[in-house]
Amino acid sequence: MHRTMLMTLYATGLRRSELCHLKVSDIDSERMVIHVHGKGSHERDVLLTPKLVETLREYWRWMKQRPFYFQAQ
């Protein structure tokens, strides 16, 4: 889990709070982007790499399909 979190942060440049609020529906693997809901009402799209998409899919299968990718702790 921590490896996937760090890979996502490094590859996309997301903030920690944006990562914690990342939903499965925010990831568009066809367009290779993540729709990010940032501070306030700011929204943006961030590019994905093929390796990150595969890692996120692996993590998705492992975590038993929860609504949020990473639970805030």
In short:
With 73 residues, this protein is an alpha+beta fold. It is 40% helix and 16% strand.
Task: Outline the secondary-structure elements.
Blueprint: H1 2-12, H2 16-20, E1 27-28, E2 33-37, E3 43-47, H3 50-62
Antiparallel strand pairs: 1-2, 2-3
Helix pairs in contact: 1-3
Helix share bin: 25-40%
Task: Name the structural class.
Answer: alpha+beta
Largest sheet: 3 strands, antiparallel
Shape: globular
Note the total helix count. 3
Unreliable stretches, pLDDT < 50, 5 or more residues? none
Strand share of the residues?
15-25%
The helix-strand sequence is HHEEEH
Report how far apart the termini are: 13 Å
As an assembly, this protein is single chain
Radius of gyration: 11 Å
Mean pLDDT: 86
Strand order of the largest sheet: 1-2-3
Care to count the β-strands? 3
Q: How does this structure look, described?
A:
This protein has 73 residues and is of the alpha+beta class. The chain is built from three helices and three strands. The mean pLDDT is 86.
Structural descriptors:
73 residues; alpha+beta; 3-stranded antiparallel sheet; 3 helices; globular
